[in-house]
Design goal:
The protein is an all-alpha fold. It has one domain. About 85% of the residues lie in helices and about 0% in strands. The longest helix is centred in the N-terminal third of the chain and has 53 residues.
Length: about 140
């Protein structure tokens, strides 16, 4: 294979891996956001339950006997989804770091055309992935 074509294929493969690492960091951020949103859902539901009880002077329990249980029932699904996402976090983190590091190496060795923006993006993704992994593992989200 000609050296020129090898450089072109290396550049394209580096860009593809850079795109995958961008997708991976988006998934990692959404997983961290889902844990926050689950907690906010319970806080918001609690505020609605308390305000409904106060505004109806307790008659809501006569109208709907299982009012509190029904208000918090939707959160169980959110908790199950968040648990599944938390189990997938280490695997997505590994793939994201591997893609970003490989893309960084492939883009840095280019001789003809340097993709400076992609190199910077891959470096930032590596930093963000490390920060998110520290928050995830030190924050107690992961239990082996």
């Amino acid at each position: 294979m000609n050296k020129k074509y090898l450089n072109i294929y290396t550049l394209h493969f580096g860009k593809i891996l850079s795109n995958y690492s961008i997708l991976g960091i988006c998934f990692l951020s959404l997983i961290m956001l889902s844990t926050v949103l689950t907690a906010l859902y319970y806080v918001f539901s609690f505020v609605i339950v308390v305000s409904t009880i106060i505004f109806t002077v307790g008659t809501i329990f006569v109208i709907k006997p299982n009012f509190i249980g029904d208000m918090f029932a939707g959160g169980d699904t959110m908790v199950n989804i968040t648990k599944a996402l938390n189990k997938a976090f280490p695997y997505i983190l590994g793939f994201t770091l591997a893609f970003a590091i490989t893309a960084l190496v492939l883009l840095c060795v280019q001789k003809e055309k340097k993709s400076t923006a992609r190199i910077v993006v891959s470096s930032v993704i590596i930093g963000l992935a490390v920060v998110l992994s520290l928050v995830f593992f030190l924050g107690g989200y992961y239990s082996a």
